[in-house]
Amino acid sequence: MTNPISDILKAEVILTTGTNTDENHPIIANYVKEAVTRNGAKLLVIDPRRISLVDHATLWLRPRPGTDVAWINGLMHIILKEGLQAQKYIDERTEGFEALKAHLETFTPDHVSATTGIPADDLIAAARLYGKARPASILYAMGITKHTTGTDNVKSLASLAMLCGNIGVDGGGINPLRGQNNVQGACDMGGLPNVFSGYQPVADEKAIKKFADAWGGVRIPSKIGLTVTEMISGAASGQVKAIYVMGENPMLSDPDKHHVEHGLETLEFLAVQDIFLTETAKKAHVVFPAACFAEKDGTVTNTERLVQRVRKALEPPGDAKEDIWIINEISKRMGYPMPASTAEAIMREINTLTPSYAGITYERIAEKGLVWPCPDKNHPGTPVLHRGNFTRGKGQFFVIPFKPPVESADKEYPFILSTGRVLEHYHTGTMTRRGSGLNRLYPEALAEISRADAQKMGIAEGDYINIISRRGSIRVKTWLNDRSSQGMVFVPFHFHEAAVNLLTHAVVDPVSKIPEYKVSAVRIEKAS
Amino acid sequence: MSMVSLTIDGKMVSVPEGKTILEAAQQTGIDIPTLCFHKRLPPIGSCNMCIVEIKGRPGPVTSCNTPVEEGLDVATQSDALHAQRVINLKKILLHHALDCPVCDRAGECDLQNIVYKFGITDVAFEPRAQKRDDAYATSLIRYWPERCILCRRCVTACQSIKGIGAIDIIGEGDEARLVPVAADKCKSCGECLSVCPTGALTENLSRRKGRPWMGKRVKTTCGYCGCGCQLELSALENRVIGVHTETDDGVNQGSLCVKGRFGYEFIGDENRLKTPLIKENGQFREASWEEALDYTAKRLSAIKDQFGPDSIAGLTSARCTNEENFLFQKFMRAVIGTNSVDHCARL
Amino acid sequence: MTESKTITLNMGPHHPATHGVLRLIVELDGETIVKATPHIGYLHRGIEKIAESKLFQQVIPLTDRLDYSAASANNIGYCIAAEKLLGLEVPKRAQYLRVIMAEFARIMGHHLWIGTHALDIGAMTVIFYAFRDREMIMDINEEIAGYRLTPTFFRIGGVAQDTTSEFIKKVRAFVKWFPKAMEGYHTLLTKNKIWTTRTMNIGKISAEEAVNYGLTGPSLRGSGVAYDVRKAFPYSSYEDFDFQIPVGENGDVYDRYLVRMEEFKQSINIISQAIENLPEGPVQTDSPWITNPRTVDVQNDISALIRRFMMHTKGPAAPKGEVYAAVEGAKGELGFYLVGDGTEHPYRLKIRSSCFYLASALPRLLVGHMVADAIAIIGSLDVVLGEIDR
Amino acid sequence: MQTIINAISEKHPDAITKQCDAQGICEITIAADAFLEVMKFLHENKPFPFDMLTDILSIDRMPRTPRFDVVYLLLSTKNFTRIIVRTEIGEGQEIPSVSRIWHSADWAEREVFDLMGILFSNHPGLRRILTWENFEGHPLRKDFPLEGKDFDKPFDTTTIQDYC
């Protein structure tokens, strides 16, 4: 997020798209609702499903899944037509505006409403709402990024925000709501094939030298590594022989489950380190028992780049050990004894090697966390990014043509399947499907179909249906409500009994390599 | 913001306009007894414990929702006020169940503290607490009507913080009790549970596993979504017996969601992995750490020598801490010698 | 000048005659002691630090473990200090019961003293008689409080529960029986030639010096200073009883022996007066914050149940203030300096231990005597290390 | 008792900073510089000298500066009256020892030094009395944890050195 969560209270208009905030980020939804009820902010929700946030929305647009670039360009087209853009901000702080302006000519309201299914005057009202408001904040999540055009969607949203001068200002910003407690931290720490910690590129000689020297003169390759989807296909093709998995469950979270299963089984060696015997762990040659978040010390970074402490409250069960200890032991046995053994010592190493985390020490975040970038020991952190000027100097406008999703509804597979999360469960259900509490609220997978479609196919509430795609089929209970629009079905991916990744295809976004979970063509039949 | 000055118990106080008398008193350290007042909630004014006398006004006024005015002369303590407060408490105690030894909230119950502070020795009326078992808006929280003091904190919290309003108090006199008016809209966030002053709302999960103050309280960050809510785990004999929040702490300011407040059962689950496992002809067998670690190191080194470092890949996790992620990518890059490190940020 | 070679002898901390873990480094020139430096702290449990994290009524069992040979005498001190701080009135009957238990504690302490003191000097039989009588007092303790050595019978604001007729019968029996037992001790020791030669003119200390060294109790009265806290600063209705304060003349081991033997008699005198006119009435003060509600109330009345629950988990909050209350323990003046800061925990509790100052006088008393006399002198001071080290 | 107070304030006008009645015992607070003279005066004061020093104790008033209170309880065995003398000492500040006036002060001051860390100038032998020689820290201070420092690590008794 470019702005802190509390900035939501300062926004005049809040645009949320691709995020069911009330269910996936309930606390951020509290802020949105407080902004609307107490501060009189206007809420503009753009989501194919009628999510509960719509109850508080001033205006709700319902685009067809996968047509995000179209309506974003449509909004920008209207804002330019009515001169609502922040021209001074554009001239001083951005570049590439003219090319964008020319490109937007074709995205007239009628043309956009044809591709997206949003009525033209709603588009105009939305554009005026967002265009006039200073500041306006954009919140988005996986609904925008889980497409083959994910990166394009994000770039278009960035252009929209810059058009109205909403970046680098209080109450504004373009704010991705990260899904997990430390997904931001994992990226910051270099858990990516193309960057070291602090996003220092792997290809940069200076960075390699710095890390190599710090780690005792080891040889670090400059070639960008494999992403998770490439690893799985690499395993299937035999290019990858061994995978070491820590706290992950690709069997359920990766697209095209058969493909994943085949890949993992052909591996020479698979080591998994987790807190439960997950589906992936069952495929492993070695399984290590690890400690969960309540049994370890360390830090995590939340979605607003705030680094906060995690403290140990319990001892791990049985012989389970903390991940740090396990990694240290393996590396010692492979002839590379690691010096740092406690979380605090590792953080000191991170301070030296990662400029944006340099000032974040355990003493400073004992009471309250710090927002990175925090370059030195007495720097207060930077809650709002891009203030004054952009980190890369000038803001870049992008000319993004509209590309339809890979699979669209056709005669044989008339429905569009979208997958996602629900309030009561988390990711692959490893944690939330244990114990009686959360299970009682949401015991099994439910496919959400609109009442109209159900009536047409003679499906009653609670019947079981088969959802079939070109890659596989699952049997799942139905939940008739008016959340899903006609011709759409939503199935959560927490349940291995109805593993929705049997249905999704493995085509990914060219840049971010994120699979298109939000749009898959399926067929629905009444199950026996 | 214009300042308003008034005297409370003879002390001159000046506070910004719009503040209530209670806030002015608290600011100068004068202690007015309260029961239904809660820092995070707008004033409710249902318990009448915070009554004060204002010179020139006929009867006592509840100070929690009366705004300050210029030149007020407020008295917070007097025999009449004390007698009235004792009567208020006794009316509440009239219906209260004799549950203290078995009540989850005992020891942290606002009603207990205020009754003890006032030294109430006997409730003159014949107590008529009826045992009733009423349904509540979610299966994760249990409602004990005979412990409820009808202070409306839960109703206000559900309306003002969560904007849902799933519960309300219906009925008059003895019949009045909390009823889920819109149970389907309830998100089981536990906001009502966290502000309830007594044991009327308790967790259905950890009933009577231990008193909260017995456990060791550790402040940590929630392990689920990206909001990074601050919460306190209370652990007793290596078991988590409860989750608590401080009202002015972290981005969540005391609120949590259903996963944060109730999703801690997996920590003590019996089929947590406890010993390293090694697969032999399709079956897992338990192994010692020594054996498992040696086996892994040997296999990884062998594959690295035979097929080169790029034949090995690593999957770290967005649910591990920064330090673990850093160490993992250091292991893959320095020890294995490959950049094939990724995690599920893409999924 | 012949070069006089002194040897250093290490006595304790595990030594039969040091009445506990006192360590004495003694420099000998032949048999006479040239220099003695006591070392203490082997039984230091940090009672004062622990008290700061306890509730007020949870500190009472801690005070039992100070001078464990006369436990009730310590409890009464702490309870009076707490009651002064909290401003509570103790009913008459409870005060009388406290006096009885405190005097019994004094007698128990003196029994232990006479038994071990005589044993150190060589009289083997005295300890059997002394412990036989001590056993009877322990039965009385058990009868009323359920515990023999550390009864913890007192509560802030009164005593734990009322007496039983059995208790009164036993006390009367002991009061009737004890004077005869006293004659036994006197015939064994007072005129015994060996006893007088081993104790007369040994460990002499003048009145001024004793006061200057902070000695109190029988050791001070042995030197002729008639200071007894029960008479100087009467507490718990001691002013209702008439009893004398025995005082010695020349402050040696023998005089301290005579003073304590007389104190036996005086304590029995107090106990008989107290048991005869034990007043009727409640045994607990009547305050909603500290008095235990009756069980029948607790089962029927929510406010009584809340009071019972809060009393044992939170307890009363003491007002801000500092209080010093001293009592006459078996070994001397035992004072409790209690500081309250408005919470339910004592902010600071300092225990003025009489034996601490008795032990500090050892270097002065031992010099010039033979090693065998050192044992007699330590016995005559009757130090208990639980109270010294706290 | 009031005569003594007046006598003191004549000789040392600014010595007594506060006087109050603590539960029936007269208490005076003395400024640190005039401390030794006032104590000598109390010891020799003619009609009834305070010849016994009952106890010395220290209180840690943590957030307040000066941080410590040192309290002396004096008793006159001639007419059985008590007086409490208090003086406020900052961290690391020294207070003159009264062990030459009353012998009982020797050990009492050593205990205050040991458990609270208050230094007494020209004391015959100021060393720890209850804890061992190389014990770190002063247990009765408010910032000393109740369980002691790193209580959960094994304690190696061979590291203990005590005064021989």
Describe the structure.
The complex is a heterotetramer of chains A (528), B (347), C (390) and D (164). Chain A is an alpha/beta fold. Helices cover 31% and strands 16% of the residues of chain A. Chain A contains 19 helices and 19 strands. Chain A has helices at 21-24, 26-37, 68-81, 87-93, 97-104, 109-116, 120-132, 142-145, 150-163, 183-188, 205-214, 228-237, 250-253, 257-266, 279-282, 323-333, 343-353, 437-441, 451-457, and strands at residues 13-17, 42-46, 59-61, 94-95, 136-140, 174-176, 242-246, 269-274, 286-289, 298-301, 306-310, 370-371, 395-396, 415-420, 446-449, 464-468, 473-480, 488-492, 520-526. In chain A, strands 14-18-15-17-16-19 form a six-stranded mixed barrel. In chain A, strand 16 and strand 17 form a beta hairpin. The longest helix of chain A has 14 residues, at 68-81. The two termini of chain A are 47 Å apart. By secondary structure, chain C is of the alpha+beta class. Chain C has helices spanning 47-51, 60-64, 71-86, 92-121, 126-145, 165-190, 193-199, 207-212, 218-221, 229-232, 253-276, 295-300, 302-313, 354-360, 362-366, 371-381, 385-389, and strands at residues 7-11, 23-29, 32-39, 154-155, 158-159, 321-328, 333-340, 346-352. In chain C, the strands form three sheets. Chain C has a three-stranded antiparallel β-sheet with strand order 1-2-3. Chain C has a three-stranded antiparallel β-sheet with strand order 6-7-8. A two-stranded antiparallel ribbon of chain C has the order 4-5. In chain C, helix 4 runs antiparallel to helix 5 and helix 11 (253-276) runs parallel beside helix 16 (371-381). The longest helix of chain C has 30 residues, at 92-121. The mean pLDDT of chain C is 91. Chain D has helices at 2-11, 35-44, 105-116, and strands at residues 16-22, 25-30, 52-60, 68-76, 81-89, 94-96, 119-121. Chain D has a five-stranded mixed β-sheet with strand order 1-2-5-4-3. In chain D, strands 6-7 form a two-stranded parallel sheet. In chain D, strand 6, helix 3 (105-116) and strand 7 (119-121) form a beta-alpha-beta unit. The chains are: A alpha/beta (528), B alpha+beta (347), C alpha+beta (390), D alpha/beta (164). Chains A and B meet through helix 2, helix 10, helix 12, strand 7 and strand 8 of A and strand 10, strand 11, helix 6, strand 13 and helix 7 of B. Strand 7 (242-246) of chain A pairs parallel with strand 15 (312-315) of chain B, so a sheet runs across the interface.
